[in-house]
Amino acid sequence: MDQHIERVLFDRATLAKRVKDMAAQIADDFRHHTNTQDESASLVLVSIMTGSVIFLADLIRDLPLMLRLELISISSYPGKSTSSQGVAINSSLPDDLTGKHVLVVDDILDSGRTLTAIRALLNERHAASVSTCVLLRKQLPTAMAVEAEYVGFDIADEFVVGYGLDFDGYYRNLPDVVTLKREAMS
Ligand code: 5GP
Ligand code: MG
Questions:
Q1: Alpha-carbon gap, residue 122 to 176, rounded angstroms
Q2: Distance between CA atoms of residues 23 and 13, nearest Å
Q3: Is 43's pLDDT higher than 60?
Q4: Does ligand 1 have an atom closer than 6 angstroms to the CB of 164?
Q5: Cα angle vertex 181, ends 110, 105, to 5°?
Q6: 0.85 exceeded by pTM
Q7: Closest ligand to 134 CA?
Q8: How does the average pLDDT of the chain come out, rounded?
Q9: Is residue 106 lining ligand 1, measured as CB closer than 6 Å?
Q10: Ligand sitting nearest the alpha carbon of 141
Q11: 18 exposure class (CB count in 10 Å sphere: 0-12, 13-18, 19+)
Q12: pLDDT tens for residues 64-81?
């Protein structure tokens, strides 16, 4: 596996430090939503599988807050290059999120299509607030810019794997975020 690596963008120590800092900021921002007797006014983390699995595991262990976790997965409709076509969301999310403050956790913000669809779903279900946390953000065309409240690192528009991110299902277990050699992707 290591022989397929072209370049290490963020090694495990760099990732660990940044994720800890993000958790500290999130804990600070959400403390007032979770420090309450009102059971319904609580924090729900909605994490998008499978790419965010390692990020999520590291992040939540540094969040000393009462929270619930919901895992969702996304499948793109065929021919996803057409902007009118969207994404299908598979989840067991509660139908009613009234009073819940939702933090969406995802691996990469790229075109923003995924997060836009999820935000719409959460708003339909009456979430009290929706914030977004991504490990990586690629440069976006301004017209399509999608806001994320918490961003680990901005990266160039190149394909990365590791720390949960895959190519063809592989490389999720690499501890670092890396780019792959061209021959590994053919
Ligand atoms: P978008 O923001 O375009 O809807 O899609 C973001 C999703 O595309 C991410 O959650 C991730 O699953 C996938 N993705 C985008 N860029 C990359 C990348 O460089 N590497 C990997 N492994 N997945 C990516
Ligand atoms: Mg994803």
A1: 32
A2: 15
A3: yes
A4: no
A5: 30
A6: yes
A7: 1
A8: 89
A9: yes
A10: 1
A11: middle
A12: 999 999 999 987 766 544
Q: Which atom of ligand 1 is nearest to the CA of 167?
A: 22
Counting DSSP H helices and E strands in the chain, the numbers are: 3, 9
Give me the residues near ligand 2 (ion), CB cutoff below 5 Å. Answer: 51
Please list the residues that pair with 106 across neighbouring strands.
134
When pLDDT is averaged across residues 36-63 and rounded to a whole number, the result is: 88
Whether the Cβ atoms of residue 142 and residue 23 lie closer than 8 Å to each other: no
Q: Which two tokens stand for residue 60?
A: 């939540």
Give the tokens for residue 178. 């890396």
Q: For this structure, is 110 an active site residue?
A: yes
Dihedral sign, CA of 79, 80, 85, 86? positive
Cα angle at 23 between 43 and 67, to 5 degrees? 20
Cα-to-centroid distance, 38 and ligand 2 (Å): 32
Quick one: pLDDT band at residue 107, thresholds 50, 70, 90?
Answer: very high
145-161 per-position pLDDT tens digit = 678 999 999 999 999 99
Measured in Å, residue 149 CA sits from the centre of ligand 2 at: 17
Provide mean pLDDT across the span 90-96.
89
pLDDT of residue 156: 94
- Marked catalytic residue, from 95, 110, 154, 166: 110
